[in-house]
Amino acid sequence: MKKYELTDETKVIDGYTLHRIKSLKDFTLINAKEVKAGDLGGWIESEKNLSHEGRCWVYEDCCMYENAKRVDNSIGFGNSQQFGDSIQSGNSMQFWYSKQFGNSMQSDNSMQHGYSQQFEHSKQSGNSIQADNSMQYGYSQQFGNSQQHGDSRQFGNSKQFGNSKQFGNSRQFGDSQQSGYSQQHENSQHLEDNIQAFQTNKKDDDLRPQKTVRSAALQKVERLTNAPKGEENKIQKPKNTLKL
Whole-angstrom Cα distance, residue 35 to residue 71? Predict the structure, then answer.
């Protein structure tokens, strides 16, 4: 039995015509919201976007189009948008003004909200949270109980997991990993295999510097900075420095 139907109410987003959906049966969403037969939901381009199986649903002004897919018990609401070839599955939730596109994937109990964006081949899973104006892209992965906030960026092949948190204008990229109860703040950067953060206890107080693991690239930068006058030209500067 089908869970919903497309109505004749339409609107155009980015050149795609979306239809308001209407529920054909009663069911309860993972956030305890009750959906009744006849209730109007969000907007999708076609039935390929939203599965008729499980308790997945979109409501309010959430929009889905192109080849985006939402399955299992995943829900989208608010003014969130999902498009491209992105996938939402498990018990994932997407809301407020967040956007997911490209080939990105969100699963398990992960949450995306605020004005955050997830795209390219990035993956978000576990109980992770992406919020505010943060961005996750490239082949980066966020999982565990990790959180990404502020204007932070995670990209490259980087991984964020454990109970780690990323804030401010921080950048995590390359093959870096952030884990444990570490926190990355302000304009800090994690690059290549470098891990430099602050270790905290579960109450998020008493910040203590954690042991720093310096990559070869970072050591070159330090040698260049500390080199005697006239010697700096003998040290090869790192190439392909990312500036975002």
Answer: 17
Under the banding of pLDDT at 50, 70 and 90, the label for residue 185 is confident
Burial class (CB in 10 A: 0-12, 13-18, 19+), 168: middle
Cα dist from 90 to 93, 107, 158, whole Å:
9, 5, 23
Q: What's the mean pLDDT in 126-138?
A: 98
Pairing of strands 183-184, 177-178: unpaired
Strands 87-88 and 4-13: unpaired
pLDDT at 35: 98
pTM more than 0.85:
no
Q: How far apart are CA 84 and CA 227, in angstroms?
A: 49
- Report the DSSP pairing between strands 189-190 and 208-209: unpaired
- Residue 94 CA to residue 175 CA, distance in Å, equals 27
**3-state SS class at 19:** strand
- Stretch 170-174: mean pLDDT: 94
Q: Where are the beta strands (DSSP E) in 132-231?
A: 135-136, 141-142, 147-148, 153-154, 159-160, 165-166, 171-172, 177-178, 183-184, 189-190, 198-199, 208-209
- Distance (Å, whole) CA 240 – CA 97: 33
